[in-house]
Write a structure and sequence with these properties.
Mean pLDDT: 83
Structural class: alpha+beta
Distance between the termini: 38 Å
Strand content: 15-25%
Number of helices: 7
Order of helices and strands: HEEHEEHEEEEHHHH
Strand order of the largest sheet: 5-6-4-3-7-8
Shape: globular
Largest sheet: 6 strands, mixed
Number of strands: 8
Radius of gyration: 19 Å
Helix content: 40-55%
Length: 237
């Protein structure tokens, strides 16, 4: 598995192009666009989001930017007016997160071998700075991705990755089963990415740290451990 340093160097050295698997220059391939729209509409129907509540369907994330690699998913975001779905926003958010996870567990939907992740985003949610965002409904860019190389001190990023990976591995190796502690470390890791993208875009330091943890396998190890602990806590022997 490639190190973060190799990943960043590849991004700096390679020509700034979008993933040719899905793009012809800056235009999404017609079959990809059609496939993503079909998946988005299927998911909306399956989880009960009415058509009148859907403002658009966007492609975001690594494969809508120049910062993609072989682990990048196709991130499909339904842009939803949540007020047309439910008056209880908090319960709706919990429901949508649960259905997103259920999709990941039960479905294995891919386009050209790349997994498609789905999510419902409120129409009024702040859009991350400099994040590439392509409208599948309109067939054009909402925000074109930045062509700048990744920013941040490589040494600092690698140090942060190393520290967080050590925390994750210590929790796994010592068999920590305290739900609050496990929830804390997971929120810490994922909040790092979420807040970083909102403030600085795909090349923000926090996002690169998250990608570093994913590339080392630490994210997968943490998710598997959390699942195993939950299964054990809920089972009767």
């Amino acid at each position: 598995m490639k190190t973060l340093n190799v990943f960043i160097r590849e991004q700096k050295d390679k020509e700034r192009t979008l993933n040719p698997k899905f793009w012809n220059n800056k235009t999404l391939k017609p079959e990809v666009r059609k496939g993503l729209l079909k998946i988005g509409n299927y998911w909306a129907d399956a989880i009960g989001i009415p058509k009148e509540a859907i403002e658009d369907i966007h492609l975001v994330g690594g494969n809508a930017s120049y910062l993609y690699n072989d682990q990048s998913d196709l991130d499909l975001h339904l842009i939803v007016d949540k007020s047309k779905v439910s008056e209880c926003e908090e319960l709706l958010d919990d429901y949508l997160r649960a259905r997103k996870k259920l999709w990941s567990y039960e479905q294995d939907v891919t386009i050209f071998g790349t997994e498609v992740e789905v999510y419902a985003e409120d129409v009024d949610d702040p859009k991350p700075a400099r994040q590439g965002r392509y409208s599948l409904e309109k067939g054009r860019w909402i925000t074109e991705p930045s062509t700048e190389a990744p920013k941040g001190d490589d040494v600092v990023i690698q140090s942060r990755v190393k520290d967080l990976e050590a925390e994750i591995d210590e929790i796994i190796d010592t068999g920590v089963a305290n739900p609050e502690q496990l929830k804390w470390i997971k929120e810490r890791v994922f909040k790092l990415r979420r807040q970083s993208i909102q403030k600085g875009g795909e090349f923000a330091q926090g996002n690169l740290v998250f990608k570093g943890l994913r590339n080392t396998g630490a994210i997968d190890r943490l998710n598997k451990y959390l699942k195993d602990v939950t299964d054990k806590n809920l089972s009767v022997y």
